[in-house]
Amino acid sequence: MTAETSQTLDRGLRVLKLLADTDHGLTVTELSHKLGVNRTVVYRLLATLEQHALVRRDLGGRARVGLGVLRLGRQVHPLVREAALPALRALAEDIGATAHLTLVDGTEALAVAVVEPTWTDYHVAYRAGFRHPLDRGAAGRAILKARQGRIQDAGLALTHGELEAGASGAAAPLLGVSGIEGSVGVVMLADAVSERIGPRVVDAAREVAEALR
């Protein structure tokens, strides 16, 4: 560290890099050990980064990279959407249902990219920017399953009527993408999700994850 640099800023940037390199977040104690500083310093760093939405802490106290990191660059969200759109378009056309990419924003699920099928007579209207609690809807539930390590079935989540009456959803989490928690899913007007749709959604989630790596 030279006289021209800021020790606090350096530590804050190191916190962000450490969090970006883990899929499950880090506790204050873990960050303290990795940084070689006491817990009080880590608490102050996290509190400051949280104020700018660069870091978020889940209910278990684990710190993760926040979506404020994405907002630092105006082109990041468009780049994420651009990377996901080919797989989402193919999914929407194949299934005949609205496909979406959803990312975690704090305690909510945020739809950042949506593609509606072109050939159906009707489909569920779902817009980019739509938010809902993580524990409601297939998109959020898939993310929570991945967070909890419940990925025996690739983290596939199926729901019915949780966000809109008469609508069913299927979603699979993005796995192996450092610093991003999200899912790819479809929503349709149906009483249940047919057996062929789940594997197709899982494949699309894998395609998007590969595009974002």
Q: Summary?
A:
The chain is an alpha+beta fold and 213 residues long.
Model description:
It is built from 7 helices and 8 strands; from the N terminus they run αααββααβββαβββα. With 213 residues, the chain is α+β, with helices and mostly antiparallel strands. Strands 5-4-3-8-7-6 form a 6-stranded antiparallel sheet. A hairpin with a 6-residue loop joins strand 6 (157-160) and strand 7 (167-173). The mean pLDDT is 90.
Features:
213 residues, alpha+beta, six-stranded antiparallel beta sheet, two-stranded antiparallel ribbon, elongated, Tscrpt_reg_IclR_C, transcription
Layout: helices, strands, pairs:
Layout: H1 7-20, H2 28-35, H3 39-51, E1 55-57, E2 63-65, H4 68-71, H5 76-95, E3 98-105, E4 108-115, E5 131-133, H6 138-147, E6 157-160, E7 167-173, E8 182-189, H7 197-212
Antiparallel strand pairs: 1-2, 3-4, 3-8, 4-5, 6-7, 7-8
